[in-house]
Amino acid sequence: MKWITYDPALLEDITARLDLRVPNAAAIHTVAEAIAEGDGREVVCDLATGVGKTYILAGLVEYLSTQGVRNILVVTPGTTIQDKTIGNFTPGHPKYVGGMDAELLVITSENFDRGQVGDALHSDDVTKLFVFNVQQLIRPTDKTSRRVRAQDEFIGTGLYQHLQEVDDLVVIADEHHVYNTKAKAFSQAIGELGARAVVGLTATPAPEVKPIFRYSLAEAIADGYVKIPVIVYRPDGRKDEETVLADACHLLRIKDAAWTAWAQSQGVTPVRPVLFVVCRDISDADRIANRLTSNDMFPAEGQVLTITSQSSDIALRALEAVEEPDSPVRVVVSVNKLKEGWDVKNIGVIVGLRALASETLTEQVLGRGLRLPFGRRVGTPMVDSVDLVAHESYRQLLANKEALLQQVQPNGGGDVEEERPQPSTEAASSASQQAEQGILNFTSRARVVGDDVVDGSLLLQVESMNAAVQQGERDQRAVATLRARVPGAPVIRFPRREREILPVRFSFSYITDAAARAEGAAYAHEFKVTLARQAVDAQRGIDGSVDVRVTAAESVDATQRKVTIAELRGDLYERIWNIGHVEETLAESRAAERVVREFLAGAGVSSEDVNHDWGELRARQAATALGKLVKAAYDNRKLQPTFAFRPVDVPTVPPPPMPSNVVNKWEKFRKDKWYEGWEHSIEPVAQFDAGSTEYALAHLFDGSSSVQWWLRNYDHSPVWIERDNGRKYYPDFIVLDTQDTYWVVEGKANDRAGDAEVLEKMRAAEDWARFVRDDGRFGTWRYLFATESTIRNASNSWESLLALGKPE
Question: Domains of the chain, with CATH numbers?
Answer without folding.
Answer: 8-215 (3.40.50.10810), 219-480 (3.40.50.300), 508-637 (no CATH), 646-805 (3.40.1350)
